[in-house]
Design brief:
227 residues, hpI Integrase, Chain A, three-stranded antiparallel beta sheet, 3 strands, 51% helix, globular
Amino acid sequence: MKNLFFKKFIKLMKGELSRGKRPKRHYSWSLNEMKYLDIKKIKKLRLALLTAMVSNPNSFIVSRDWFMIELGLSTGLRVEEMTNLKVSDLYLSDRQSSLTVRQGKGNKSRTVYFSESFKNECTLFLNRRKLDGMTSDYLFTNTTGRQLTRRALQKSFKKCLKLAGLESHYSIHCLRHTYGSYLYKSSNHNLRLVQEQLGHESIRTTQIYAGVMNDEIKKAVKNLYMD
């Protein structure tokens, strides 16, 4: 025991203990209703943008903001990934359409698959860009064709919230959480699929969507042990 004590003491004096490996900290957080949109709010947001497009058919900004919302809800991209997305990153096919994230988190690339309905929305927006003379390869630009920043995209999202009469505490990142939550449900609780679509390095990150108290889970808990 004395020899062990002295060895530790000598290491401490040399600073070896302080330079040793420290236990990893695991930060956990829950996904609550303040961080994602429910079905009613999704419909309200979409309706507001569609109404704005009908009222302002010549506005590129309105069309762009509409596409921003649809992209977030249909692919769950991070804000940085949205700003860096290019026309050439879209693969529109009659079989299975997808997009390529070339500089995701950790500078990793991935393929994100999406629905037929969103493929049609992509085609609509790309045609609109041509009509407005947009030649930049970046999907999200201002009226002069300059790539939007994360801050600019967030500002546009806040305007969309106001237009739809939704709470201002939501950030554009809520579109990613909304996508992840409903993809988890629609995929029959396939965490691995959600992980791949969202580009999570660890499946522990994806597990936050398993804890969302949606209507289905609330009903199951309420009816527990009932005949």
